[in-house]
Amino acid sequence: MKEANKIQRQYIAQIKTLFPIIDRQERTYLKKLQLLIEDYCRENQNISIETLYKEFGVPSDIVNGFYSEMDIADSVKRIRRNIIAKKSFRYGIVVLLVILITYCVGMGIVYKTRKDINSHKIYNNSEEYVESLEGEYGE
Fold first, then answer.
1. 132 Cβ partners below 8 Å, 6+ apart?
2. What is the CA radius of gyration of the chain?
3. Could you report the per-residue pLDDT of 83-137, keeping only the tens digit for each?
4. 3-state class (DSSP) for residue 20
5. Full-prediction pTM beyond 0.70?
6. What whole-number distance in Å separates Cα of residue 1 and Cα of residue 47?
7. Rounded to whole angstroms, how far apart are CA atoms 131 and 139?
8. From CA 50, how far away is CA 11, in angstroms rounded?
9. 15-36 pLDDT, tens digit each
């Protein structure tokens, strides 16, 4: 039975890889197909991937059959929507990374500036340093 489950999963995985997107309709179709395959595996003991190909068809035929029953315009619209959503997500991630990097660089500059200011306060107690500052800035 374990071997049959492994073959089932392999067959379904091959089919899933051929779908350009997997929305609700594809998931429903795959779920029904998986139930049919499970029933077939329960009834037949010795199955292989080739027997599934013979009984249900090769994965490319299954996907082609699914899309031949659907409206092409609807499929194209769903695929385009999916592509736009993926691009929007990628652009959003890039924008967030740019904002994060800008924030980190800004905080680094603020930290360095504060550190320089604090180090000048420490040296202000020394007469040499105060004199050198007066010479530089003409005070």
1. none
2. 33
3. 899 999 999 999 999 999 999 999 999 888 888 877 765 445 555 554 444 545 5
4. coil
5. no
6. 10
7. 9
8. 10
9. 999 988 888 889 999 999 999 9
- What distance lies between CA 20 and its chain's CA centroid? 15
Is residue 20 within 8 A of residue 72, CB to CB? The reply is no
Tokens of 95: 């924008």
Measured CA to CA, the distance from residue 56 to residue 19 in angstroms comes to 17
Q: Which residues contact residue 75 at a Cβ distance below 8 angstroms, ignoring those fewer than 6 apart?
A: 67
**Hey, what are 89's tokens?**
């997500």
Alpha carbon separation from 4 to 49, 51, 94, 128 (Å, rounded):
9, 11, 44, 86
Could you give the CA distance from residue 121 to residue 88 in angstroms, rounded to a whole number? 49
